[in-house]
Amino acid sequence: MTAIGFIGLGIMGGPMAANLLKAGFGVTGYNRTAAKAQALTAQGGHAAASIAEAVRNADVVITMLPDSPDVEQVALGTGGVFAHARPGTLFIDMSTVAPEVAQRLAESGHAAGLRVLDAPVSGGKQGAIDGTLSVMVGGDAADVAAARPVLEAVGSTIVHVGPAGAGQTVKAANQLITAGTIGLVAEAIVFLQAHGIDPEPAVQAMAGGLAGSTILNRKAAAMLHHDFTPTFRAALHHKDLGILTSAARNAGVVLPLGTCAASLMAALNAQGRGELDHGALITVIEQLSGRPAAAADPAGN
Ligand code: NAP
User: Fold this and answer.
1) In terms of CB atoms within 10 Å, which of 29, 144, 151, 209 comes out highest?
2) Which residues line ligand 1 (CB under 6 A)?
């Protein structure tokens, strides 16, 4: 049985580890806040007290952490993955981090005798629960082939997109499209409400045409009802758009729509609302339209 060490059992990591267990892998999980590892134990996995314990006997180590510094700390720190994993271990970072960080991790991992892939995902919390994530993988083809059975336990679309770091570059483009689309869905809802049109049947009509999208299907209802229970924290999307705009600048390309979406997401975070779901972007559009959240939503969301 392939033994997997899984680090970071949050909104995404928790259900992904559960799906690895369901697929028959042995999973030893580590979470900084130990209580979050209890669900894994109940599902038949093991909870490790340290990163070292989680990775020591693993064939594959997966990290699912918020940001570049978190992954660097967990991978490169003194008590970290690279110090304790066995040579030949396949290290797969599935977090969304900067492409250059993924490239540096690959170099450091190779120097430590590990095989390294960047394999960020898209599909949200529901995709993680359903095991239908889209996985964009950067690294060596032989390592991608070795990882495929593991990745297929958490995702239904697994694509090798290029060398180390390429997975993260594709993920940045993915986040450009998701942020822009959420912004446009938010604007459409506010526009319809201002015309006195019930947005629910309107969304139903639009979803059947060219404007239809996964975001319209999955997020519009929560956005118009101001249910911002986090499935993807706005703070993380803000982080992703920082990665995107920096990478665009490095490549010498402009993203007129992307930078606008990034500014709106930055505004949401600057207002101290980064722990809400990224669908809360609609509150920024409401404010800009003079239809502030308090008026649109008595609950004050
Ligand atoms: P999350 O719910 O905040 O979970 C993050 C996990 O990382 C938590 O278990 C947290 O532990 C742990 N952690 C944070 N900082 C750490 C550190 N310095 N050292 C060790 N552990 C640390 O985030 P998430 O939504 O699962 O997202 C994880 C990654 O997936 C992010 O890169 C995100 O951009 C990406 N992603 C998210 C989604 C989504 O829809 N949510 C979709 C695609 C990709 P504690 O329990 O102690 O806080």
Assistant:
1) 29
2) 8-13, 31-33, 36, 64-66, 70, 73-74, 95-96, 121-122, 124-125, 231-232, 236, 240
